[in-house]
Structure formats: structure tokens, C-alpha cells
Amino acid sequence: MRRAYEDFPVGRRLVSGSQTISEEEMIEFARRYDPQPFHLDTRATENLLGGLSASGWQTAAISMRLFIDTMQVEGGIIGRAIDELRWPAPVRPGDSLRVEIEILEARLSQSKRGYGLIRYRSLTKNQDDKVVQSFVALAILPVADSSSEAEEHSRGGKDSLTSRRGLPRAT
Amino acid sequence: MRRAYEDFPVGRRLVSGSQTISEEEMIEFARRYDPQPFHLDTRATENLLGGLSASGWQTAAISMRLFIDTMQVEGGIIGRAIDELRWPAPVRPGDSLRVEIEILEARLSQSKRGYGLIRYRSLTKNQDDKVVQSFVALAILPVADSSSEAEEHSRGGKDSLTSRRGLPRAT
Fold first, then answer.
1. What is the DSSP letter of B22?
2. Are A21 and A66 within 8 A, CB to CB?
């Protein structure tokens, strides 16, 4: 099944499958992108993270993969803005991560005909249901049916959507 | 040279070296973490990005590597919060990226003795000086000298620092 803008109304929630992160993958990513002791060395326990843990940017990358596989957007979905990105708990080797998405806002693009914008909250949780990452994003994706878009435009219903939380009103 | 909290007063600016991103690296990252046509396929030009471009999360990861190599913090530096993360222009194969850092705020941690917090703006620019990524971050890092910390605490001068832009007052 391939989806489009119309499949993500406000309030829709999606839960991804899960992906386990290995110590090997963690260290490989850290060597390349975030070479710090607490991401590289299993013996590095004398730090704020209390032991080997994943780079936050790796958690973000894995979460993106889970998001893409879950959303299944025909033609792809592009992030315009990320806010409130937090890593409230460390990701350890062997942790199994999943992503929970909630659609917060949805409107048609005024400048890019054939596209819609969604604002959503993304939570990444581990196998103990602990949140290891959270953010709010604005993303753009294709509409399925440009005739329904024309109808919606003629109603003008989506133009009044305001952007809370400081996200830009991408048009 | 290895640095600590004291080396990053408000107003300090740092510029990283540059790193070139290859088409191969771009596609490899996308296959694993962001498998969408505009990150995978050199022929994918019919999209909002106008051709093959890097996943924003790869730009973030490369920027982290440039940041770590530039900051050179003894004991490491850990991101607590990222806000206003944007990718205003696409990153193409062969682009050469560098990171510019500006320290916006600095204070000692009240709860983690021996650590300080800095808020900084991070800009990633390409070889044409075009900004391809920007964000504001709050990060924690060790102090070099705990006696100067004691002195600062006794003055109480840093306690009044407020957190603008919605960043949490991590303590």
C-alpha cells in the first residue's frame, strides 16, 4: 500500500515496526560521525551517559528509517523543519526501537500545487516503553488526487491553519 | 589542544574544516536510513529537491563530526536539546561542507557538579557559502577547573540566565 497526503488527517496515529541496534552498528556510526568516548568505548562508564550509548544523530537516523517504512508515502516525504528535538534517555546496545507518530496539523500547500503539509509529533521508544527521542516536524508530501485539492482550495478551509510552536508556515 | 567549558564564552565563534560528501556515501546512508528516491537515485529529478540530494539526517551527522573535530572537548560534549533545525538548501554529491558555531549562552550546571552548559547556533554551509542546515542547541560539557566553578557559584552570577527560544533549562 502506498499513501499520500490524504491518508494523514489530523489525529491519525501510526506505530512503526521495531529495529534493534547492535553494539557494532553503534560504534561504526560513532567512528564516522560522532567519535566520542561514550559512543565508542564499552568501558567508558565515567560520563553523564553512564556507559556506551548511541549518538543522538544515529537514533534520529534509525527513527527516520522506521518513519519512512511506516508512512509508505508514494513519491516520498521531505522534512522542512524539526523542533523540540530531545534525547531524554540513552540508547544502549541491544535496545529495540520503535517510532510513534501523531498527526497534529494538515493543510494543502499554497505554493506547491499537488503537495500537502503535515505537522506531526515523533516519539522513539525502547523495548521498555521509555522515550529515547522526541521532536515535532513539518513535512511536505504529494497529494493523491488533485481534483480533491481543487475542491479544498475552493472551500478555503485549510488556509486558516496557524503554525504553533514556531514552525515556519512553509507554503 | 583539548578544551573545556571555560574555552567557550558567549560570543565565541568557531569554524570547522570542510568535508566533501560523495555520491557513494550519500546513497549508502540513504539505503540504510532514508530510502527515498531523491536520496537514492541520480535519475530522480522529478521531485521537490530537483535531483539527488543528501538526507537531512546525513547532513546533521556530517555536521556533528565537523563540530566534534572543531570543539575538541576533553571528555566529550553531549547535546541536550536541538531547536529550529532546518535544511534550507539541498546538499548535492561533491558538495564540501563546513560548520560555523557561535556561542549564545554559557553557564555552569547547578545539578551536575563539574559541568557547564552552552547554547550555540550551528550553521552548515557549502562551498558557495550557502546555508544547507541550521539549528540552535543546548549542550553539556566538563569544566576544566572546579575551583573556578566554586568561585562562580559563590558569585551566583550565572543563575539568572534565562532560556530563550524554548530550550529547557537543563540543570
1. P
2. no
Its pTM stands at 0.86
Q: Which residues of A10-47 are buried (b: 16+ CB within 10 A; e: fewer)?
A: eeeebebeebebeeebbbebbebbbbbbbbbeeebeeb
pLDDT (tens digit per residue) in A133-162 = 999 999 999 999 765 554 454 444 443 343
Q: Is A2 on the interface with B (CB under 8 A)?
A: no
3-state secondary structure of B96: strand
- Secondary structure string (H, E, C) spanning A45-102: CCCCCCCCCCCHHHHHHHHHHHHHHHHCECCCCEEEEEEEEECCCCCCCCCEEEEEEE
Chain B interface includes A56 (CB < 8 A): yes
Shortest Cα distance from B151 to chain A (angstroms)? Answer: 23
**Which residues 6+ apart lie within 8 Å of A62 measured at CB?**
A19, A21, A97, A124, B33
Measured between CA atoms, how close is A129 to chain B, in angstroms? 20
- Contact check, Cβ <8 Å, B55/A49: no
Most B CBs within 10 A among A36, A62, A136, A165, hence the mutation to make, goes to: A36
The shortest C-alpha distance from B19 to chain A (Å) reads 12
**Cβ(B100)–Cβ(B71) below 8 Å:** no
Whether residues A86 and B81 touch (CB distance < 8 A) is answered with yes
Q: How many CA atoms lie within 13 A of B134 on its CB side?
A: 8
Residue type, A55: S
ipTM above 0.90, yes or no: no
A32 near B CB under 8 A? yes
Per-residue pLDDT reduced to its tens digit, B93-123: 999 999 999 999 999 999 999 999 999 999 9
Shortest Cα distance, chain A CAs vs residue B78, angstroms? 8
